[in-house]
Design goal:
By secondary structure, the chain is an all-alpha fold. It has a domain at 43-154: Four Helix Bundle (Hemerythrin (Met), subunit A) (Up-down Bundle), CATH 1.20.120. Helix content is 72%, strand content 0%. It contains 7 helices and no strands. It has helices spanning 2-30, 46-53, 56-66, 74-93, 103-124, 130-152, 157-161. The protein is rod-shaped, with a radius of gyration of 24 Å.
Length: 165
């Protein structure tokens, strides 16, 4: 008789534990709705795009960034953010095209790096990454917009370099 009670308790405990685990997995999957209302990327003018197409470091960063809009769960997003960190480091260390080797571009890139690391921190500490993700996309859009400004700038280099004016 005691053996039967022992086996009954073991069966009850194992069956109840399995149901709880599956409920937790379903809750984590159903809570990932971060990518539903993300801002769109800013368009780059054709003059800037031709220069950027030759810049391999930026193109790899942009390909990684485009994956954000297709993430389906938290684990994919963690991998994408890690890839963004690596590609951003390569771009920071690499050589810039002459048109974009200006402090404004490098400053926007540092702001983007800050928000990428903020999103990574939110993911590591299991916080809601939606706000930091929107800030990261905004910083990336500002970087893309700065490429447009750099190409469309009609001021002579002498006026931009002269700090007395």
């Amino acid at each position: 008789m005691p053996k039967n009670i022992f086996f009954l308790i073991v069966i009850l405990l194992t069956s109840s534990c399995k149901e709880a685990v599956s409920e937790i997995e379903n809750v984590q999957e159903s809570q990932w709705d971060v990518t539903d209302s993300l801002p769109n990327k800013v368009r780059i003018v054709s003059k800037a795009q031709t220069i950027l197409n030759d810049w391999k470091d930026f193109m790899s960063l942009e390909r990684s960034f485009d994956k954000i809009y297709t993430t389906e769960n938290r684990e994919d997003f963690v991998l994408i953010v890690d890839e963004l960190v690596e590609n951003q480091k390569k771009m920071e260390v690499g050589t810039y095209p002459a048109t974009f080797d200006i402090p404004q571009i490098k400053g926007r890139q540092k702001v983007f790096k800050t928000y990428v690391l903020k999103a990574k921190g939110d993911l590591e500490y299991r916080q809601d990454p939606k706000e930091s993700l929107i800030q990261m996309i905004t910083a990336f859009n500002d970087l893309r917009n700065q490429f447009n400004v750099g190409v469309n700038n009609t001021l002579p280099d002498e006026l931009r370099a002269n700090e007395e004016n």
